[in-house]
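ok, trying the design again with the full structure, not the truncated one.
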């Protein structure tokens, strides 16, 4: 179903940890209905940027807007309610919870799955659950996890837990979806499934931001690529432009 995506814009964003300038005057935009990949060497500031956008960290200076509205000082709960969802590199899933329950819990926990068991045990959760079952089933079909719906989530292989992270984010029907290394640890088939799911989310109108090490996947999937290096934007362009960029080759690919 169509999603009304929102333009994500970051302007002159800076963040330091002690004396370590993780981001310096970073400006970029991610458009609705487009996949924007964020790449760069380890320590270049990609995760910090995601954490600022979803309100886990506070910026030192600069702007962050979604569909024109500032979220730079909003709480992570508020940002989640505004339709910005993210996945985590290392999904935390408590034992004793099925794949379907994890997806449904995505409705209620924007945060890392830490609150998940508490949420699942609450009377509120049981009441609303029926309403969400159908939506969860759709998302489990889309992500190829439907045959595992009643399996214990924590027992899944890593690749499927990563896909489950994506599914958990999708149940919120996000305007902006931030994917943190969603493909790492996935085998070729799983990467293909992930790529197809991400394309469908994009085509539904969502603003997709992809932080990803797999350069081939980025080239195949991204509409725009932003390259970070040492906390700044090194280059920005289409996959073809980035692939041909000599500075990117030197900095990022090391060739
Ligand atoms: P990337 O995701 O591109 O690998 P990060 O955003 O994780 O880069 O890190 C950018 C810089 O910020 C690094 O020097 C890292 O050590 C530092 N950094 C990130 N998060 C924290 C934190 N919570 N506390 C202190 N330093 C941090």
């Amino acid at each position: 179903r169509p999603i009304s995506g929102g333009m994500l814009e970051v302007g002159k964003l800076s963040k330091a940890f002690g004396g370590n300038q993780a981001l310096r005057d970073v400006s970029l935009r991610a458009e609705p209905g487009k996949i924007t990949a964020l790449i760069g060497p380890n320590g270049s500031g990609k995760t910090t940027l995601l954490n600022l956008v979803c309100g886990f960290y506070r910026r030192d200076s600069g702007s962050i807007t979604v569909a024109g509205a500032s979220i730079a000082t909003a709480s992570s709960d508020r940002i989640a309610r505004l339709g910005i969802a993210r996945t985590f590199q290392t999904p935390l899933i408590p034992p004793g919870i099925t794949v379907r329950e994890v997806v449904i819990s995505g409705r209620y926990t924007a945060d890392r799955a830490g609150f998940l068991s508490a949420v699942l045990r609450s009377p509120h959760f049981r009441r609303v659950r029926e309403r969400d079952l159908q939506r969860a089933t759709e998302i489990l079909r889309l992500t190829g996890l439907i045959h595992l719906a009643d399996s214990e989530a924590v027992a899944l292989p890593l690749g499927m837990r990563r896909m489950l992270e994506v599914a958990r984010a999708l149940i919120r029907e996000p305007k902006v979806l931030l994917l943190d290394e969603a493909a790492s640890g996935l085998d070729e088939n799983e990467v293909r499934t992930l790529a197809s799911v991400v394309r469908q989310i994009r085509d539904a109108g969502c603003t997709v931001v992809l932080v990803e090490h797999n350069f081939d996947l980025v080239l195949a999937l991204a509409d725009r690529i932003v390259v970070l290096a040492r906390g700044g934007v090194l280059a920005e362009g289409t996959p073809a432009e980035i692939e041909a960029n000599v500075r990117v080759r030197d900095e990022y690919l090391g060739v």
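Keeping the full-length input from now on. The chain has a mean pLDDT of 88.
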